[in-house]
Amino acid sequence: MSRNAGGSRVRGPNSALTEFLRERGIDANAIRHRYEETLQQQATTSPDTVVTVSGSSATSRSLSRDEVETTVSSSSRSRKRTKKKHEDSDDEGELLARMTRPRPGQIDFCAECQCRFTVTAYSKTARDGNGLLCHSCGSKYAQEEKQQKKTQISSRKRKKSIAAALLDKQEFAVPKLQDLCIKVIAKYIEDVEILGDIGDFNMEKIARILSRNRSLKDNTLKLFLNPSIKRLHFWDCSNLSSDSLELIASYCPLLESLTLSMCGQMTDKVIDYYSTNLRNLHSLTINGGFLITSGCWVRFFDKIGSQLVRFSLANTLRFNRESLQALVRNCSATLEELSLSRVGSLKNEDIPLLLQLPKLTALELSYMRDAITDDDVIDLLRVIGPRLVTLNLDDSGDLTDKFLLEGVRPYCGRLQNLSLALCDGFTDAGVRDVFKDWEFNNGLINANFSRCTNVGDEAIQALIDHSAKTLVILNLNSVYKLTTATFQLLASSDCEFLSQLDFGFVHCVGDEEIEVLTERCKSLQLIEAYGNIRITELAKVKRGVKVLGRQSDSL
Amino acid sequence: MSGENSSKDSGDKEYVRLVSSDGFEYSILRSAAAVSGTLRGMLSQSSNFVEAKQNRVVLPNISGVLLEKVCEYLYYNLKHQNNPGNIPEFDVPPEMALELLVASDFLDGKDGSIRSE
Amino acid sequence: MMSSGKSRVKMRPPRNRDSGDVNFDDSWAVLSTAMQEMYRKNASRLSYEELYRTAYTLVLKKHAERLYNSFKTFVAQHLREIVSTELAPLASNTTNSLLTSTIGGGGVTSTIAVPLAAADKREGGIRFLKAVKAQWDDHCLCMRMISDILMYMDRVYCKELQLPLIYDAGLALFRDHVIRNNEFQVGEHIYAIILDQIQLERDGDIVDTSAIKATVLMLESLTEDKIDGETVYSRSFEPKFLRSSVDFYTAETDKLSRECDSSQYLIKTEKRLQEEFERAMSYLSMTSEPKITKIVEENLITKNFVSVIKSDASGLTYMISNDRFDDLKRLYRLCKRVDPEKTDLRSALMARIIQQGGEINQDALEVLKHPDKSKGVTVQNAATIAAFKWVEEVLGLKEKYDCILNDTMDGDNQIQTSLTNAFSSFINQINRCSEFLSLFIDDNLKKGLKGKTEDEAEAVLDRAITLFRYITDKDMFETYYKTHLAKRLLGGRSISDDVERMMITKLKMEVGFSFTTKLEGMFKDMKVSNDIMQEYKAHVQITDPERTIDMSVSVLTSTNWPVSLSTIESHTCVYPPEIERIKRSFEKFYVDRHSGRVLTWNPNMGNADIRVAFRKRKHELNVSTYAMVILMLFNDLADGESLTFEEIKAATSIPDNELIRNLQSLAVVPKTRILIKQPMSKDINVADRFSFNLGFESQYIRIKIPTVAYINKTETETERKGTMDKVDELRRYQTDAAIVRIMKARKSLEHNILVAEVTGQLSSHFRPDAALIKKRIDAMLEREYIERSAENRQMYHYLA
After folding, report:
1. Which residues form a coiled coil (chain C) (predicted)?
2. Contact assignment for C151 to B50 by CB distance below 8 Å
3. E strand or H helix at C74, and its extent?
4. Do C4 and A190 touch (CB under 8 A)?
5. How far away is chain B from the Cα of C171, in angstroms, using its nearest Cα?
6. What is the pLDDT of residues C200-221, one digit of tens each?
7. In chain B, which ranges are continuous DSSP H helix?
8. How far apart are CA A76 and CA B9, in angstroms?
9. CA of B37: which chain C residue's CA is closest?
């Protein structure tokens, strides 16, 4: 049976998930082991007599049947397994029951009302397992059982819906009337002729829902366009044709800020049109516009680059050195925020071009692994570091402690938002030394060290010591090495603004830590705890704090 | 709509009166009205505005039909706010969805003020 | 599920009553008028709904930015008006004179320079604070109302653009246009008034704290724009407050150190600390408390404390000698505040103890050197007296400091360590401490504790143990204790077996099992000997019923007892034949039972009861074994015959020193002159002749003739040297053993580590010095227990 016992070292190909779990020390053996342990515990803690055994197997049967019903949608394999399991226990129970049970046709006394009755094959066993029930008591009992099962299912359903809501990061409360209306509007969006004065905020919400439903289409787009509008954000433009995208500029000439995500149909022609028509545009975010050519970007910047304050680009391979040269040539006097993410066409020799953007306060160069090196970024920070408020270099694996100690620490006095997710080149001591007595900086508001796997207690404790008074968002997802000491420090550090905290997959965190944290950090609103197996539904979390990803929530 | 026409007394602190643009008047529980941040602000005894003194709010930008739906929602929210787990859906007729959106936006007040104090 | 195309419903667009463009100015006029009404407290005439809707519509029609800015302009203007019409006139009448130093030529100031009476001026200050506070309250109330009607803007505009919400913006406006008004700095006035009030209170006046408290609360709720927790209080007021406090306390420190003695100084310092604490808590901010406390501590304590402690007239020494416990308590409390290590206090205490201890040592040595002959004190007695005096005085000192530690310093661990170090240092300065202590115990166990209850006895022993703890060379003590104990046991001089055992138990608890095994072995030997004697007596009754001489033997395990007892050659003795016979009989009896054991006789530790017929009557004499042997010689002599020293020596082979001592006790000591010596002199000479004193008389039938050596006093110099040699030898063995033990376990070790480990192992017995260890390591190398490593000369390897 057991392959592992055979000692074979041959392993078949692994799925990414298996690999991922193994990295975190989760494997089938460990799970089985834990399961067996709990079984054993249960066995030792309930050395019951024979009579109660049959009783308890009856209740467990009803539970497991229930389970089958509720997990019907899950994979058939798991269904089979549960079924088999409870068949086994059925056999046992049946056997026991058969040994003590009177045969059909015999006369017996009802366990409930003590009346005489004839035993049939359908006679029910009394609740406590002692004796059988007469027909009338039996049917009453069956009714109750049904009712019970029903409430069980409904409470399960309720739990599920809570979990679903939590996953969406929604407040779990009575839905707001606006949201109810917006949902209806989004659903019937095809029937809407004009949205009217519903407020930018609501308009954006509707746009967001449409994006999620993939129902932002050429016809519905027009509802959001009007000549006075200054800001537009569309999160899913995959169904918008290039003509429609052009319409945005012709309908809304006053646009100042434009965000278009997943705009795969965006072409050079549209961007050229924008640059002639959107005279007030100062903030542009394009995600997924992979058709736009390098030459087009050059034209764009030459035309209206001098008014851009914010430019953000993600997921393209065509934004190259020439485009960037045009950007710095035209935008150096105005550009304050620049974000380039997954722009694979830029190389590390292009990074020094950014030295010509002296007004930058926010810089993101994320998911461009090969383009980011210590020396380039240090040179860059020497010039722009003193003004930077936001710095995001996610997934820059080549960065080392040198970057932190010679770039961030000496130059970034104003830095408030620092995101270094997936940067596994930093060591615990390196990160610690940045924050230790870093009086030059007044504290971070938003810090992201998720999946910096070589970082540990000393680093994060130094961060807490340095920024406890200012931190609002802290992401420590998958910083495995952390121990409870760090979370105790966090709880005792009087972080009065900390409102979001992610410590998913940090295994040391358990119920106790989460209770103390929510108790002591007054502003805490959201905790993400995916993969924290030690956090259970028993944790007493202060009201008003949302906890996402608890295993118990997804049952 | 629980039209409590009998309680005419405007001094009755338990009920407040909402008046629509077309003159319909609804008397609803104060606690239901307090679901709306805007109404709560208007009726709050600590502020000194005319509405608070008269226990009566005139809403010239909301029609009777809409206001009735609004009141229905206020009660719906009041009833379920302590047990939000499994509640029936609140029906919003598509034809009034846009108008209702505007009205509810108007009445929402500050963010997150749905819950009673 | 529900396809939207199926049921076509027409969705009514919202019909906005105010559809089309709104006129911003008209709407703003409505709102600004309303705001004015609110400031005039006329809100009850306003319709919330109308105002809210007006603002709502403006925001919906994208006028939010204008609305936000208009609101700010309006409020700013209103506040500036308030300052110039309400606050400035009030201030110029009352607070100018306070401000001459703080404000240089501001708009409204410096016209009235008439100095008002101090009281008026101060009342005016409070009035000004109250006026500002009233404006503040009004402003907050209005901001609450305005933020209510502009709620929609907060939600969709301010939050979206992350601008301060209306209410917060309103507070910031108050900060910038009232407190930090560039024409009339209300803030500077406020700060000066509060500082003035604080100065008054520090000088002993009573001030109106409620007005100040309210003002401070206001300053604390005005935050700075950056979110770093800074407020107007912490940014603007607190630094001024701290600066003025530094000035005050610098002067105060000078003043107090000039005017007060140490005791007064401490009292006033505590009072100041308490005052500042209460002030911070009651009407300033809690956040200022640690800062102001630090200022007081730095000035009054840190800067000046050494001189307070060291003051000759009233400092630490004075407090200790005069039992000024309250002062000591204060001293400790204050010292602990500024320095968790309490370095100054500890070093002063140590210096004082070592000084006092040195005096005690000096006194004891004086007694030794110059015994008070007039009181009949012999040299040896003098040593005992010195030992007693020394032990009692050290214990007395120790008790005094324990008392100080527990009553005034919370039994502080660090202080306790310092006390221990100080005691240990001066106790071990006097090299006879082990001997003194052992003597003290010996005397108590022999007579001092007679008639005392068990508890009393235990108390005395406990005191001895306290001293014992300080002694570093515990092996020295062991040597002395063993000698003294041996004499007590063999001489039967111990007052109680129980008390002896109690002492052993206590020693065991202090230094462990190994230290007392030998001592316990001694007790065991005594018990086993008793059993053997019983058996032997029974045996004699059967084999030799005629025997007239009783003999009692103590069989001692040689390793358990002091070395002096087990060296064979020094205790030779030729016994009289009758004794020799009995001795043989016992030897046979014993060896029969315990084959393989060798018995060595120690006549120097024995004693004998003999009946002697003098001319007048018979007496029973209790003498030492040697004395008995000597006296027996005279049995065979005719009356009047004599023996020379040489003859006695030849007949008995008793070692010279023993012989001299015993002859001294038999022939020199006046009351026990059993022998007559010729010529009569104190010293025994080789040519002296001895004859039996037939005419000896005494009123007692039983007479104890003590041997000079048995009188247990402090050692003479030569004895001391012998003891030291023995101890040194033992130390060598112990060091060797430790080296081998460690090397066997570790196989290879560096020189320094080995020395460190050996020192560690030995330190419970004595304080080993590095030279000794090095010497022993060399010896071990020579004897090839260990070898030097070939590569590294600093490295040793163990040789199996």
Report:
1. none
2. no
3. helix C64-82
4. yes
5. 19
6. 889 888 888 888 999 999 998 8
7. 30-33, 37-43, 50-54, 64-80, 97-108
8. 65
9. C151
Comparing CA positions, the residue from C246, C340, C242 lying closest to residue C299 is: C246
Taking the CA of residue B73 and the nearest CA in chain A, the distance in Å comes to 7
pLDDT-based confidence at C584, cuts 50/70/90?
confident
**Residue C136 pLDDT more than 60?**
yes
Q: Does domain C717-798 bear CATH number 1.10.10.10?
A: yes
Q: How many CB pairs under 8 A join A and C?
A: 50
d(CA A449, CA A393): 11
State how far the Cα of A501 lies from the Cα of A471, in Å rounded to an integer: 10
Taking contacts as CB-CB distances below 8 angstroms, the residues of chain C near B59 are: 49
Q: What is the pLDDT at residue C133?
A: 92
State the residue for tokens 């406590």: A128
Q: What percent of chain A has pLDDT over 90?
A: 41
What residues of A are in contact with residue C229 (Cβ under 8 Å)? 469, 496
Q: Return d(Cα C772, Cα B80) in angstroms, integer.
A: 89
Residues of A in contact with C158 (CB under 8 A): none
**Residue percentage of chain C with pLDDT more than 90:** 16
Selected from 1.20.1270.90, 3.80.10.10, 1.20.1310.10, 3.40.50.1000, the CATH number assigned to the domain covering C24-222 reads 1.20.1310.10
Q: Which pLDDT value is given to residue A301?
A: 95
As separate numbers, helices (DSSP H) first and strands (DSSP E) second, chain A gives: 19, 15
Determine the residue of chain A that is closest to B102 in CA distance.
Answer: A198
Tell whether the model's pLDDT for residue C568 goes beyond 70. no
Task: Supply the pLDDT for residue C111.
Answer: 37
Domain at C606-710, CATH class: alpha beta
The mean pLDDT value of chain C amounts to 81
The number of folded domains in chain B is 1
What is the average pLDDT across A414-431?
A: 93
Q: Minimal Cα distance from C19: which residue of B?
A: B61
Cross-strand partners of C623: C608
Q: Do domains C24-222 and C432-511 have the same CATH topology?
A: yes
Give me chain A's average pLDDT, please. 79
Domain ranges (residues) in chain C: 24-222, 432-511, 527-593, 606-710, 717-798
Fold of C432-511: 5 helical Cullin repeat like (1.20.1310)
Q: Which residue of B has its CA nearest to A172?
A: B84
Q: What is the pLDDT of residue A156?
A: 64
C740 contacts chain A (CB < 8 A): no
Q: Do C53 and B61 touch (CB under 8 A)?
A: yes
Task: Please check whether residue A371 is in contact with residue A350, taking contact to mean a CB–CB distance below 8 angstroms.
Answer: yes
Tell me which residue range forms the domain holding B75: 15-108
Amino acid making up residue C342:
K
- Give the pLDDT score at C122: 74
List, as one string, the DSSP characters of A120-173: -TTPPBPTTSSSB--HHHHHHHHHHHHHHHHHHHHHHHHHHHHHHHHHTT---S
Half-sphere exposure of C367 (CA within 13 A, CB side): 19
Taking residues C519-526, report their average pLDDT.
Answer: 85
In this structure, what token pair is assigned to residue C500?
């002896």
B66: CATH? 3.30.710.10
**pLDDT at C267 > cutoff 80:** yes
Predicted ipTM of the assembly: 0.86
DSSP sequence for A280-334: T--EEEEES-TT--HHHHHHHHHHHGGG-SEEEEEEES---HHHHHHHHHHHTTT
Interface of C with B in 19-48 (CB under 8 A): 43-48
Range of weakest confidence among A262-266, C27-31, C369-373: C369-373
Please tell me which of the candidates C11, C59, C155 has its beta carbon nearest to residue A191.
Answer: C11
Q: Would the pTM count as exceeding 0.80?
A: no
Please check the confidence at residue A79 and state whether its pLDDT lies above 50: no
Residue with tokens 């392959």: A3
**Per-domain boundaries in chain A:** 10-47, 50-167
